[in-house]
Amino acid sequence: MIKNWFKNFFNTTKVDSNIIKQAIIDYRIQGKYLMFELGKKFDLDIKKIDDYKQLISRSNENIPRKGKLSERWNYCFHGGECRFYNKKHQQTVEVVLCNSPEFGHINAWFLWSFMQSTEKYKNEAKNIEWQELKVMINKLYKSGQIKNIE
């Protein structure tokens, strides 16, 4: 009993790591889907490196740096990322562009924004700061529960 009390006393994490793990999985699935849909919008198969380069190239005048992906989703390229925003649900998904075709690199700030804007994770996001989330993500990587995608 005292052992459990000490464990709980020193455990400051307010969110179950399994919830964070599931949020990462959902984030990756959604980001990958949105990137492939963006490629399709411009008739590009982004599994092909040349098509992918066309999609993300700043010098490609045929692809606007921001715009409408669908009736619900907008997109905006910025720096080395692409931000997707769902107008109906006000959901945000940020995709790191350097790790195509997986788009699964996890940035703690982007994951936190995703959790805050995703109905399924809003309550958990209220109970954690993005800096705490960064520590939890690193623990999931180190324990092998989440694969690091660079």
Describe the 3D structure.
A hairpin with a 4-residue loop joins strand 3 (81-86) and strand 4 (91-96). Helix 4 crosses helix 6 (130-142). This protein is α+β, with helices and mostly antiparallel strands. The longest helix has 25 residues, at 17-41. The protein has helices at residues 2-10, 17-41, 49-56, 108-117, 122-126, 130-142, and strands spanning 66-68, 73-78, 81-86, 91-96. A four-stranded antiparallel beta sheet has the order 1-2-3-4. Residues 4-12 have low confidence and may be disordered. 47% of the residues lie in helices and 14% in strands.
- For the largest beta sheet, what order do the strands appear in spatially? 1-2-3-4
How big is the Rg? 18 Å
Number of strands: 4
Strand content range: 5-15%
Write down the overall geometry: globular
Largest sheet: 4 strands, antiparallel
- Following the backbone from N to C, one meets helices and strands in this order, namely HHHEEEEHHH
Which SSEs are present, and which pair or pack?
Layout: H1 2-10, H2 17-41, H3 49-56, E1 66-68, E2 73-78, E3 81-86, E4 91-96, H4 108-117, H5 122-126, H6 130-142
Antiparallel strand pairs: 1-2, 2-3, 3-4
Helix pairs in contact: 4-6
What's a quick, concise take on this entry?
The chain is of the alpha+beta class and 150 residues long. The chain has helices at residues 2-10, 17-41, 49-56, 108-117, 122-126, 130-142; strands at residues 66-68, 73-78, 81-86, 91-96.
